[in-house]
Amino acid sequence: MQPNVHIMDHPLITHKISMLRDEATNTKDFRQLVYEIALLMGYEATKDLKLTDAEIKTPLMTTTKKVLDQKVAIVPILRAGLGMVDGVLDLIPAAKVGHIGLYRDHETLRPVEYYCKLPSDIPSREVIVVDPMLATGGSSAAAISFIKQRGAKNIKLMCIIAAPEGIKVMTEEHPDVEIYCGALDDRLNEKGYILPGLGDAGDRIFGTL
Ligand code: PRP
Ligand code: URA
Hints:
Layout: E1 5-7, H1 11-21, H2 27-45, E2 51-57, E3 62-68, E4 72-78, H3 82-91, E5 96-97, E6 99-104, E7 111-117, E8 126-130, E9 133-134, H4 138-149, E10 154-162, H5 164-173, E11 178-184, E12 187-188, E13 194-195, H6 201-206
Parallel strand pairs: 1-11, 4-5, 4-6, 4-8, 8-10, 9-10, 10-11
Antiparallel strand pairs: 2-3, 6-7, 12-13
The chain binds 1-O-pyrophosphono-5-O-phosphono-alpha-D-ribofuranose and uracil (URA).
């Protein structure tokens, strides 16, 4: 596996993804699990955020201690990525949130853009793109190209389940992007769904099955 691809093996993440896969998991629980997984993955994916020295006055003395030196933007790919935003925001409440709307054309499986609104200072932010599913990789690769066109340089992708096909596309098109996945599945089916996967993430998060 390429050095910029990180497959999480934390037992809590693995367990929660198994619950997500279960077709008996209802919308409410599915949404809650996506939130919890995003929070756990976000903790891991932010472990290289830069720190700087700051003077802190405690009740007893003044001291120099480390504080965050990097501003963050979270960019969900609509719709399903929305389910992961709050988990990361709970870790980094000062983060800004941009949105990219893409859907996969069911015939061609190619992403179609319908919305893009990003923070104007995105070039100076560490960008965390969130989408539960990395299938063909078309949506994530296109979203990251838009974000790069707006000047962002530090970009990470967090996805809950990835297919090998999506990892290949992402690492070929965006070798500079660190990819964090909760699980690496077997393959895609003929309709571009991840196997064994969890089905349609957007429909399961929003109850539109
Ligand atoms: C899903 C998913 C990803 C995309 C992954 O979105 O949330 O964005 O498919 O597939 P890819 O890697 O082959 O591009 P979908 O297009 O179903 O839209 P939705 O979130 O609005 O349901
Ligand atoms: N999008 C989904 O929501 N699920 C898949 O398995 C593939 C793409």
